[in-house]
Amino acid sequence: MNLNFLAIIGRMVLSFLRHAGRLAVFTVVSLLHCFTPPFFLRNIGRQMVEIGYYSLPVVGLTAIFSGMVLALQSHTGFARFSAEGAVATVVVLSMTRELGPVLAGLMVAGRVGASMAAEIGTMRVTEQIDALTTLETNPYKYLVAPRLWAATLMLPLLVLVADIIGVFGGYLVGTYKLGFNPVNYIKRTFDYLEFVDVFSGLVKAAVFGFLIALIGCYNGYMSKGGAQGVGQATRNAVVGASILILTANYIITELFFSR
Amino acid sequence: MTTDQPKIKIRGVRKSFGPKTVLDGVDLDVGRGESVVIIGGSGTGKSVLLKCILGLLQPDAGSIRIDGQETAKLTGKARDQVLHKFGMLFQGAALFDSLTVWENVAFRLIHGDKMPRRDAREIAVETLRQVGLSPDVADLMPAELSGGMQKRVGLARAIAAKPDIIFFDEPTTGLDPIMADVINDLIVACREQLGATTLSITHDMASARKIADRVAMIYHGRIIWVGDAAAVEASGNPYVDQFVHGRAEGPIKMELRR
Prior knowledge:
Chain A is an all-alpha fold. Chain A has helices at residues 2-34, 41-53, 56-78, 87-125, 128-134, 139-177, 182-191, 195-221, 226-257. The model of chain A has no long low-confidence stretch (mean pLDDT 94).
């Protein structure tokens, strides 16, 4: 019984190390192919539309309700120590620094990361990736690099939109429900906002985008064993990307704001 | 057939996955312009052998020479140059389902040879005609085609760039007998038109008889018999006999349990 338990721990450690090693190699190879020609611009464009444009509705909805609930919560909370005036500032700082990038990142991980893993995984199990190689096309260049480029470039744009929509959500609740003066609310929004607040959020977004595409492609690329394998790859892509997003979020925040 | 050096010369190729040995020292020659068919049961290493020759898998040991050039350890650009000589028809056709039929057929022309899309499309349509598909199929997506049509498109994709060597991985599996024979005819016709060397793997004896000059039988990771296609019926080898005549009784025991 005791030995069994140790064996399970040992297997888990070994499996973790194996995955970490494979992911590290995959990352390095993918990055090399991102910066060496040929570049498949058509694929990059297609992925940019898929990731950026088609994620707008879900990211927009997430942002507007987050902004709205943020205004409501901070208003009722801050009323306890008569600090209602800070609502606009709290909304804009929370949205740009944290909620915009993290919520958009998590939503895109569910939407785009999953579909990348499923698509590339299916291509793997139906031998389409082998077919690419036999047609003298490197699958890293054709499949992985375009997704990495597109996700890294599009996520900051998505987050910028999410920031604006989120602040607008806070404005709606603030002015229509909580009785703030519209001009005052907007002035308050920008009074304490600094460039670094928005910039740090956009840096986060770029990193999250890269991670989502990397984990999605990695899981798809390594998948095997038919439909079940693809299902597993999809799940691992979403869970893995989400955890990495939250981890990276803390690290980047620490780098920007802890001094 | 083998007058000069063989087109493909395989010596002592081994490949294992973990503890399971799949190829255990394969020796095989394929002459220029020759059609060799490898027969053998499921799980005997036929597909792995093809993938080793193409470089999709790296053999653990042994030598694979294409036109006299050692290729077993090649990667990157050098591997691409070797792959330029090859066309491959995959078992499930392996068409790219995000691209239209003509983009599939023209894939290598567009991405490998950097041909303008308009010219590549013309060649693709022409190649589709060669495999018996009308031009209006060109703009469909692969998912809209039947299995037999997908195989034809896969064949068109394999031959569009006029390769020297074409591999067929179970070209008739999953097709009805008539469509299977149509594909066999197409394979023979393509070979005659292109003068290509072909290596096929199959467990369909009707297909093997039709497309093979020579037949090789693989069993337990080794080539146990090679001979002219005409001699396969009377090989005198009990393993080949059992396989060709499809008997459950004989020296080959199905591994029902691992």
